[in-house]
Design brief:
D-inositol-3-phosphate glycosyltransferase activity; 2 domains; Rossmann fold; D-inositol-3-phosphate glycosyltransferase; 13 helices; transferase; alpha/beta; seven-stranded parallel beta sheet; 13 strands; EC 2.4.1.250; elongated
């Protein structure tokens, strides 16, 4: 198949949508398909090239004045590639692929990554709409997407091409006992709840440390909250770390305290690392943790409940080890290869269901040195 993935960028910034798309594109190319990623570019271009994935610069933005250039660029891409499948991972790409071509000769697949955004309803324009969890699928159904067009494919990162052949980073030499999270520094990720829970915990475990791995718009506010709560000395804001595996390997307890989390990739990473996991019972988190078998689930925005769960695991080594073992049980479905196979199967079924489409005749136009289709 000829497959085109559309996304706003391919920057290595910890964006789960981009990471998932990069894994998918690389593995599809490894499986022998002709794969192209169209975006504004970024640091993952080198990895894509190593896997034989072509990257074409196609700047996608919501500003109305950019629409003519986007449409022209998208139609040049179609003429050059003649794709069987266009897979849109973000709202702009979904609209472009649905309405940007007068004579559409490809199927459009959309993946709903951030269902909590109001613009997520625009992903309904796909010939098939992929939800990253059953919770997201139910939400899109309530928004009016016919259930027969919704397909659930959970995210998975085990065996990701992004870390293939990359040695384990040097030990960060974390203090113990510790709590680790890998998340954007934002209100949505519940960092404020984790800080308040930690403030309660250290009154009973004064030697504990908290490591916040990630960057985000609310970092300054979270640092100020840590000072206000009196835990700044035991709280470590590391900033963004592209390969956080060493932090996961040294975590005593891993926490994801999100208020909204459709299908967090980091839970797959934490399970692979064999972490004892505590996460909020929201959206796709229970599904990523086998309904609570592979991690403790607590209510969102409830620092007291989070502190209580953390205290149990931090003080009971047997309970912590048991939960860590359960995290690694039944994780085969969280492999990146499994996700790739599921998407390829969906592409094939959708192409068969919609019937043969006229073949687009590719126009062989060389790309300029910067990768822009002329």
């Amino acid at each position: 198949m000829k497959i085109v993935h559309l996304a706003n960028h391919v920057r290595n910034t910890g964006n789960g949508i981009v990471n998932m798309m990069i894994d998918l594109a690389c593995l599809q190319a490894d499986a022998g398909h002709e794969v192209t990623v169209a975006s504004s570019g970024g640091g993952f271009e080198e990895l894509l090239a190593r896997h034989g994935v072509q990257h074409i610069v196609l700047r996608q933005a919501r500003e109305p004045w950019r629409i003519p250039a986007m449409l022209a660029g998208f139609n040049r891409l179609l003429a050059r590639i003649g794709p069987d499948v266009v897979h849109a991972h973000m709202m702009t790409g979904a609209l472009l692929a649905r309405f940007g071509s007068v004579r559409r000769e490809y199927i459009l697949v959309t993946t709903v990554h951030n269902e909590f955004q109001k613009s997520a309803w625009l992903m309904r324009f796909g010939d098939c709409v992929v939800a990253v969890s059953e919770a997201v699928g139910a939400s899109m159904s309530r928004r009016g997407v016919p259930r027969q067009r919704i397909h659930v494919i959970r995210n998975g990162t085990i065996g990701t091409p992004r870390f293939a052949g990359v040695p384990m980073p040097a030990s960060p030499a974390l203090a113990h006992p510790n709590i680790v999270t890998v998340a954007g520094m934002s209100q949505r990720k519940g960092i404020q709840d984790l800080l308040r829970a930690f403030a309660q915990l250290i009154t009973r475990m004064p030697g504990a440390s908290l490591y916040l791995v990630g960057e985000g718009p609310d970092r300054q506010a979270m640092e100020a909250l840590a000072e206000q709560l009196g835990v700044a000395g035991q709280t470590h804001f590391t900033g963004f770390i592209a390969n956080p595996r060493a932090y996961l390997a040294e975590a005593d307890v891993f926490v994801l305290a999100s208020h909204k989390e459709p299908g967090g990739l980091v839970l797959s990473e934490a399970r692979e690392a064999g972490c004892a996991i505590v996460a909020t019972r929201v959206d796709g988190n229970p599904e990523m943790l086998d309904g609570g078998e592979a991690g403790l689930l607590v209510p969102p925005a409830a620092p007291e409940a989070l502190a209580a769960a953390l205290e149990v695991l931090m003080k009971d080594e047997d309970a912590r080890r048991t939960l860590a073992r359960r995290a690694r049980h039944n994780i085969e479905s969280f492999s990146a290869a499994h996700v790739c196979e599921a998407y390829l199967s969906l592409y094939e079924r959708t192409l068969d269901a919609l019937g043969p489409r006229p073949a687009a005749v590719p126009i062989r136009r060389p790309a300029s040195p910067d990768g822009v289709v002329r």
